[in-house]
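Why this split exists: single-chain examples teach little about how molecules sit against one another. For that reason, every record in the complexes split bundles all components of an assembly together and asks for one structure covering all of them. Below is a record exactly as it appears in the raw files.
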Amino acid sequence: MNWESVSAFINMGGYGTYVWGSFGVTAACFAFELLALRARRRQIISALKAGD
Amino acid sequence: MSSIRWYKYSSPQTFYPLAGRLAPWFGVTAALVALYGLYISFFLAPTDFQQGEAYRIIFIHVPAAWLSMFLYLIMAAWAAIGLAWHTRLSSMMALAIAPTGAVMTFIALWTGALWGKPMWGAWWVWDARLTSELILLFLYLGFMFLHAAIDDPRRADRAAAVIAIVGAINVPIIYFSVKWWNTLHQGASVSLTKSPTMASTMLWGMLIMSVAFWLYSIAAVLTRVRSVILERERNADWVRQLGENA
Amino acid sequence: MTPPGLLDCMKTVIARDVRIALRRRADVMTSLIFFVIVVSLFPLGIGADPVLLRTLGPGVVWVAALLACMLALGRLFANDHADGTLEQLILSPQPLSLLVLAKTIAHWLTTGLPLVVIAPLLGLQFNLDADALLVLIASLLLGTPTLSLIGAIGAALTLGLRGGGALLALLILPLYIPVLIFGAGAVEATAAALGATAHLSILGALLLCTLVFAPWATALALKIATE
């Protein structure tokens, strides 16, 4: 294991903001994309239901 | 497998359910591979001698950059097929790939900046690779905006295909020019991509994360193309039946 | 009656377009004046330190030339599209890519070439010395035709679209970047007393490749836009 404690893990040798800023924003981007995909699908399905 | 069975899936109607069945598998596999990749990134890969813990950003930055370039080529290929053979589904695939590619490019740029700041003190160094990524983002946006600006879907598909192909041909030229420019203007004599001697664990981690990003991209694109198919084919009988039954 | 040869057709197209452009001198002058104004804005924004200006000069002149070229692209096909001439060109038996090449040549003669002529005067405003000015002319002479050729693809793709100008910029400017890098780089290399031969050679190569590929892509884009 690399980390002595949870706080060392979060701190990342002083680079915590950068590392977690990177991983965090990446996760947020994927989450955003997935939500947008779901919203797009919902929109077309409900448009189809309404149209017919 | 005879070729006839594959041809069956080149119609939006038959591809739609296939994509629906495949997407979740790719998604789940992506998540599992990503977990393994993250485990390597944080718990197996040792601390770097020169860069400390900040180098771990590489496990996102490099996969995202690779995917951004790879997805652009695949997008251009699908667009070219749609242009040459007038197959609607091919153009829909290109359209479905673009947003995911743009997201990957953005992630590459963001993580590149966050890696550069602690290492070289600036949020943006005009590194050849980062600058090329920025231009790649413009190419993705150009494709998407051109498509959005044209009302007729067929004209939109074909026009966007032309710009995608022109862009794809230009990517190596642009990259070469930016590299040349970067070595001349050695303002910051840094290279984000001149990596420290890589422990094999680091390479392995990057590879695993790349696979995870790749699987995720497939899942996202398959999901998106389903929506594109429904939107485009909304007047077809099979789509109307879906609307009635759903 | 023998049908007109290809070269005659191209010459006719070039002559016609140049004649029309000369009649609508305002259009031609606008992009030239835009070029001059943009170049003049930079010292106003950055300061008049001669050393700084000499360093920035090549890049500034080149970027302004790029933007001026792009500004003028709108009229490459739009006017002909509006009055039906474009459709005639597309339907004609001559290869469309060569007719497109002719139109692009005419466009360059009335847009790019004036830039090349004016540029040395602007270069003087930035304290570029004689060698650098000569290379500036050479680089623009090799580069502006490439810009017109690439720009034609964008103009054809965005034909008749709303928001055309800004969309054209988004599509075309990334493709312009290699020309910019080697064009400005040539002048900077000369100013630094390194040779500009490599840069100019690459500019020449870019021009040749674009000459071969771009008219064909533009013709394809025109057919897509008008069918």
